[in-house]
Amino acid sequence: MAKSDALFKQMQEAVAKDGKTLVKKVKGIYQFIIKGGNNWIVDLKNGTGKVEQGKAKKANCTITISDADFVALADGKLNPQQAFMSGKIKLKGNMALAMKLQSVIDAAKK
């Protein structure tokens, strides 16, 4: 199991608990492509939100990152801007939505 899977499980719990608030705050669908891990959809656009494995039909923001870098990013050991500039994170789609990602990760850590 990829290390990032545990983070997505935490996100699932956070969305199950506080999805309505997160949907109001984010209003978008993320597609995560984790190299060395799984693909995940974080839907914070519809209903009370959901987090599940798979490929989104229509994501607003697609993030490609390695399993280790995603874990480091979530732990605060990797600066998101530096990671983007150095090519560790690849973004496609809505950049403003990517900026809201930290609030989603923080919600998962509560």
Write up this protein.
- The protein is of the alpha+beta class and 110 residues long.
- 47% of the residues lie in helices and 26% in strands.
- It has a five-stranded mixed β-sheet.
Explain briefly what this protein structure is.
The chain has 110 residues and is an alpha+beta fold. 47% of the residues lie in helices and 26% in strands. The chain contains 5 helices and 5 strands.
Taking the sheet with the most strands, its summary is: 5 strands, mixed
Distance N to C terminus: 23 Å
Counting DSSP E segments of at least 2 residues, the number of strands comes to 5
Multimerization state: single chain
Secondary structural class: alpha+beta
Strand content: 25-35%
Basic shape? globular
Percent helix among the residues?
A: 40-55%
- Largest sheet strand order: 3-2-1-4-5
Poorly predicted parts: none
Gyration radius, rounded: 13 Å
What is the count of helical runs? 5
Mean pLDDT: 93
Order of helix and strand elements from N to C terminus: HEEEEHHEHH
Main features:
110 residues, alpha+beta, 5 strands, 47% helix, globular
Set out the fold topology.
Elements: H1 3-26, E1 28-35, E2 39-44, E3 50-53, E4 61-66, H2 67-74, H3 80-85, E5 89-93, H4 95-99, H5 101-109
Parallel strand pairs: 1-4
Antiparallel strand pairs: 1-2, 2-3, 4-5
